[in-house]
Specification:
Blueprint lengths: L15 H15 L11 H8 L3 H13 L3 E4 L3 E4 L8 H21 L4 H20 L3
Helix pairs in contact: 1-3, 2-3
Length: about 140
């Protein structure tokens, strides 16, 4: 059983289930879990992340409700589609939450909003550059 490509942070103010959901979405987007491939079982992921299995069930159900995961009885839970096709309303909600967390954490550490914006712009440029460079 390979470790999940993300972690949860008990010190993070976001609920554990939200951290798992965002980690899983990011892993699917990156291609760690391709469409049609299984994600870890509830028990395996809960054990690896040291969380209650009911927390993982909640995440899988929520992602299933969005059409991102599908349960195949007797086989497991599989990626049904990629997050790029998530409805605009859901993407907007996530983006607002992520931006708010970044601003809150940065300002709590004394980082000026303009410096946060500059760092974000650099990170976006770096991500775009890495997507364009050959592997």
């Amino acid at each position: 059983m390979a470790p999940p490509p993300f972690r949860v942070d008990p010190a993070d103010p976001r609920p554990i289930w939200r951290q798992i959901e965002e980690g899983l979405l990011h892993a699917i987007t990156r291609g760690d879990y391709a469409v049609g491939t299984p994600v870890p079982s509830v028990r395996d992921l809960a054990k690896q992340l040291r969380v209650n299995p009911n927390t993982v069930v909640k995440v899988y159900q929520h992602l299933g409700d969005q059409g991102l995961l599908e349960v195949r009885r007797g086989e497991g839970t599989f990626v049904a589609r990629t997050p790029e096709r998530i409805p605009a309303r859901e993407r907007t909600r996530w983006l607002k939450e992520a931006a708010r967390r970044l601003v809150d954490e940065g300002t709590s550490k004394g980082v000026a909003p303009r410096d946060l914006l500059s760092a974000l712009e650099r990170a976006i440029k770096d991500a775009e550059d890495s997507e364009e460079s050959p592997s």
